[in-house]
Amino acid sequence: MRFLGLLLCLVAVLQGVLSQVQLKESGPGLITPSQTLSLTCSVSGFSITDSGYCWHWIRQHSGKGLVWIGGICSGGSTNYSPTFKSRISITRDTSKNEFSLHLGSVTTEDTALYYCARHSQGSSM
């Protein structure tokens, strides 16, 4: 849980004035149950292929803690939470410097705020 708290702080810092790296999420506001949720995170000020970093998706239900969904690292390898592994895909488009979350067969339980974040591969998760 400590890692997830740090990720939220990282998202806030990345969008702040003190950092040139910015992450901007985009996607539909609402979808209906059983559809696939697709969100994209556009990165500026840093290349998603620069070694030593992974790019993650996390979510937060209203009034609850942060939950790590999965991530994709600079070399293209992915790592998914066992909770979502059967219905998740995280991809990247290096030409656009963005990465995307695809979460299939959504239900009302997937209603949450979704965040993207950068994480150094050298620091503990």
How do the strands and helices of this protein lay out in sequence?
Layout: H1 2-14, E1 22-26, E2 37-44, E3 53-60, E4 66-73, E5 78-80, E6 88-93, E7 98-103, E8 113-120
Antiparallel strand pairs: 1-2, 2-7, 3-4, 3-8, 4-5, 6-7
Signal peptide: 1-19
Pfam family, one: V-set
Domain Ig-like: 19-125
The total beta strand count reads: 8
Q: Tell me, what's the shape? A: globular
If you average the pLDDT, what whole number results?
Answer: 86
CATH T-level fold name: Immunoglobulin-like
The low-confidence runs, each spanning 5 or more residues with pLDDT under 50, are 1-18
What's the order of the H and E elements? HEEEEEEEE
How many distinct folded domains?
A: 1
How many separate helices? 1
CATH class equals Mainly Beta
Please outline the major beta sheet. 4 strands, antiparallel
In terms of DSSP E residues, the strand content is 35-45%
Q: Mind explaining what this structure looks like?
A:
This protein is mostly beta strands. It has one domain: Immunoglobulin-like (Sandwich), CATH 2.60.40. It has 1 helix and 8 strands, in the order αββββββββ. The strands form 2 sheets. Strands 1-2-7-6 form a 4-stranded antiparallel beta sheet, with no helix packed on it. A 4-stranded antiparallel beta sheet has the order 5-4-3-8, covered by helices on one side. The protein starts with a helix and ends in a 5-residue tail after the last strand.
Which descriptors would you attach to this protein?
125 residues, mainly beta, Immunoglobulin-like, 4-stranded antiparallel β-sheet, 1 helix, 10% helix, 42% strand, globular, disordered N terminus, adaptive immunity, Ig_V-set, Ig-like domain-containing protein, immunity, IgHV
